[in-house]
Structures are given as structure tokens and as C-alpha cells.
Amino acid sequence: MGGTSADDLRGLEFDCLAVDGDGDVALLSTAGGGIAPVAVDPGAHDAAIDAILASPVRTHAALAPDLRADLRNPWREMAVRGLFGFDSNPLGGAYGKVAAPDRPVLLAELPESAAAVAVPLAGVRSGDADVIDPTET
């Protein structure tokens, strides 16, 4: 997979899709400080995320932050479509779980564009992990 290097993405806010060994899918948000997976294409991830958000709601959010009613809640929007959500912070570090679905979706159930870009997470189970450290995957 070609794309932009992790160093080129450092300091930029962007989201990417990842898949664990069980086939569960997570949205990782760098918050500008998180370590980006190597060789990702932010535009392709954005398109895949848009395709997921255009798909129907599949489940309920077991975990999602409460935001003001006038704000869009992307964490809840992804959780109700079956994805886990992990957020870093502007200072970097590991990604903490901020969203989880009642019933996780498998990568094979998502639009083809998601399967084409999802970064594998070795040794991680999104449902069990409270934290994902990309330096350990």
C-alpha cells in the first residue's frame, strides 16, 4: 500500500481505519499527535470513512462521549455502525478507547473501500483493549 509516511503526517489531525485479528474495525484519530500507521493515504481513509458514515445504523453505542446536542458526534456515529473508536491527543501517545458498539461489525461487512485501506493491528483485540499503542502493533 502506498501513501504518506508517518513522519509526513506528524502534527496533522487525520483519521484512519484499522482492523484487528478478529476482523473488528476501529477508527483511530491522531488528534495531531498520535503516531500514524506507516504508508497510509489520508484521502483514501477519508473516502472509506465517508462510505461507512453513509451506510445504515447497525447497532447501538455501548460507549461514546456525550457532546452538546448542537455538535456532531463522530464517535457515536461510528459506534452505531459497529466500529470501535480510539483517540490520541495533541501531545501524542497511545490511543485511548472512546467509543464501542454493542455489536462490532466485521471488516467484510463494510464497504469495499474500507477493506482496501484498513491497517492491520497485530496483537490487539479492539473489544478488549482500552488503549492501542501503535509502537507495539
Architecture overview:
- By secondary structure, this protein is α/β, with parallel strands linked by helices.
- It has one domain (6-122).
- Helices cover 20% and strands 22% of the residues.
- It is built from four helices and seven strands, in the order αββαβαββαββ.
- Strands 1, 2, 3, 4, 5, 6 and 7 form a seven-stranded mixed β-sheet that branches.
- The longest helix has 12 residues, at 42-53.
Features:
137 residues; alpha/beta; seven-stranded mixed β-sheet; 22% strand; disordered N terminus
Question: What order do the helices and strands come in, and which of them pair?
Answer:
Blueprint (H helix, E strand, L loop, with lengths): L5 H4 L5 E6 L4 E5 L12 H12 L7 E3 L10 H6 L4 E4 L7 E7 L10 H6 L1 E3 L9 E2 L5
Parallel strand pairs: 1-6, 2-4
Antiparallel strand pairs: 1-2, 3-5, 4-5, 5-7
